[in-house]
Amino acid sequence: MTPHSKAGSALDAARAAGRTALVGYLPAGYPTIDESVEAAVQLGRNGADVIEIGLPYTDPVMDGPVIQDATTVALRNGFHTRDVFEVVHRITERTDAAVVVMTYWNLVDRMGVDEFARRLAEAGGAGLVTPDLVPEEAAEWFEASDRHGLDRVFLTAPSSSDERVALTVRSSRGFVYGVSVMGVTGARDQVSSAAESVVARAKAAGAEHVCVGLGISRPEHVAEVGRYADGAIVGTALVKALRDGGPDAVGALARELATGTAREA
Amino acid sequence: MSSQPSIEFEGPFQGQSGPYFGRFGGQWMPESLMGALQQVTETYEAAREDPDFVEELRGLYRDYVNRPSLLTEAPRFAADSPGVRVFLKREDLNHTGSHKINNVIGQALLARRMGKTRLIAETGAGQHGVATATAAALFGMECTVYMGEEDTRRQALNVARMQMLGAEVIPVTVGARTLKDAINEALRDWVASVDTTHYLLGTVTGPHPFPAMVRWFHSVIGEEARQQVLEQTGRLPAAVAACVGGGSNAMGLFHGFMDDPEVELYGFEAGGDGVETGRHAASITLGRTGVLHGARTYLMQDEDGQTIDSHSISAGLDYPAVGPEHAFLHDTGRATYEPVTDAECMDALLRLTRTEGIMPAIESAHALAGALRLARRWADDGLVGQDTPEGQERIIIVSLSGRGDKDVATAAAWFGLGEAEEEKDPLEEMDPGVEQ
Predict the structure, then answer these.
(1) Cβ neighbours of B194 in A, within 8 Å
(2) B108/B116 Cα distance (integer angstroms)
C-alpha cells in the first residue's frame, strides 16, 4: 500500500483551490533555532503550502553563496543534526503546511537512515528532498521512507535522459523537484526557458506533482511557473529576506509571492 | 583507533571497474551531473578499448611526459637500514614535476573526444592544477583552476605557473578554504557549465567513473615499476609504499602489484600533528565511513556527519577523505594504511635531499618516512639485519610522486633556513643519521 503523502495532499489542496502551490525554503538553525522556527511559521501562515527546511552541511555543492553563508552561520552557532527534528516539530505544531527536510545525504547516513526517518516522522515531517542522492543509491531510503510513511522528493534536471526522468518519477513520492536550470541555488532575473520542458517530461513520465525550483524569487516568476507546474519553489530570496529583515520580512515576502499563485479560472 | 580489516575477498584485485569497490564507491551526486558522468563513463570505456586512443596516450606519455620514469635505487638513503634496498619510482621526473600529468593527459584526450573546450580542476598543492593548465595549453583549451585561498598562499609559485600557462586561478574563500572546498566550487562550476566543460578531477576519489578511470591512467606507474624492479634485481619487492591523500599515485603504484600476494602494499596518510591531536588528514586511520564528493568511503567527519577540516603540512594530502578503492583495500587487508606525522615526513625529506641529492615533494616524503619505518620494523622483527645475505635483502619501492621545488619555502620555514648569514647549519643537529 502506498503511504499517505503529506506533501502530495498539500499540493492537491492548492490545486483544488485553483492555486499554484508555493514551496518555501529556509535553513534550520539560521540565524538561531528559535528564529528559524519563527520564520518558517511566518512562511506557512502567509501562503506557503509546503515548507522545505534545509539541514546545514559543511559541503553543500548544490547551493549558491547566500544559502552557503546562512548554513555556515547555523553550524557556527552550534546547530546539530538532531535539532532539525525539534525545528520540524515546532513548525508543524503552528502551521498547516507540509514540512519536508532538504538534506545532503551524509548527515542522514551518519545518523542511520532508518533512525533519521523514524525521528522525522515522529516530529511530524512529511519527507526528504535529497539533492545529492540519486535513486540508484537510495535502496535504504526506499525502505525507511516506506516503513515510516515519508515522501521522497528526488530531483530531475534539464540534462536528465528520458530513462533517468522515468526512474526519478517512479522513485519519487509527494512531488518531483524540477531543476529549472543547470546551476546551483540562487536568485535569477528570469525563470529559465528549460523549466517548462523539465516539467513536461516529468509529467509525460507519469509524475503527479512537479514543483520547479532554482532561480525563482518574485511573484511574476511564481505566476509564470504556475502555467505548467504544480508548484514554485523559492529559496534564496526568502533566506535573503530573513538575513536582512528577520522573520517578519519572510512573512511579508511570502505574502507577496502568494499573489503570484492565483490561477486563471 | 585504527579500524581493522573486516571483509574477506579472494581477488583478483586488479582491474575492478567500479562503480563499487566492495561497499565503497558509487555515484552520490546531484542529478544534474548524472548525464555528464554517463558521458564520461561511456567515452572512457570506449577509449580504453580503442587502439588509436591507447596509441596516442602512450605516444604522449613517451614524447611529452618523459615516460617511462626511472626506477632509481637510493643506497645512501637506506644506509642505516642494512638488509633493505630502497628504490624510488621517479614520478618527480615527469614533465610538470609529479605523477599528476599521467591522469591529466588521459582525461584531456577524453575531453577532446567529448567535444569539450574547457577544463576545470581543483588543486591543493598546485601540482594537479599546473598539470591541468599544461594540458589545456597543449590542447588549446580554456582552463579554470579552483584552489583554496589558504593553499594559494602556501603554493604561490604554482599559482604563478598556472597563470603563466594561461589558466584562470580562482581562490576559494568559503568553508575551510582548502582542497575539499576547491572540489565543491569546481562541482558548482561544472553543474552550470557541463555542456562545454570537463571536470578534470585530480585523484581517485569522486563519483564513478573517476576512481576507476584515474587509476587506469596512473596504472602505468605500477606496470613500469614492476618491470623495472624485475630487470634490475630479478625479483619482486617485499613492499611498495606511497603517500595517500586522495590516493592516486598510490593506486597507480599498487595496481602493478595488486595480485602479487608476496608484495605488501603500504599507504601512508598525513598524520599532521599526530592522529591523537585531531589535527591530521588520516581518513582511513580514523575509520569512519560516509559519503563525500560522490563516493562512499572513509572520511573525516564529526558525530553529525559534518566534514572535519583536515590538517597537513602538505597541501596535496590535506583532504578529509580517500579514494573508495583504498577504503576497499583497507577493508580486505590487502593494503595497510598508517599515518606519518609532519615531523617524521620532514626528517625523511631532508634525509633524501642530503643523501641522494633528490629533493622530494612533502607529499612524497610521507612515503619515504613510511619506508624507513618499515625497514626499522623489519629489523626489529628479525627479518633483516647486518648479515642478511644479498639474495634475501628486502626491497621497498617508494613512489616519489613529485619533486620538492614547490615546497622549498615551506621546508625553509620548517628548518629555519634561508638566512644566508646564519652561522650554524641547523640541519646538522636535526638528523645525526645523515652523513654530511
Answers:
(1) 159, 182
(2) 9
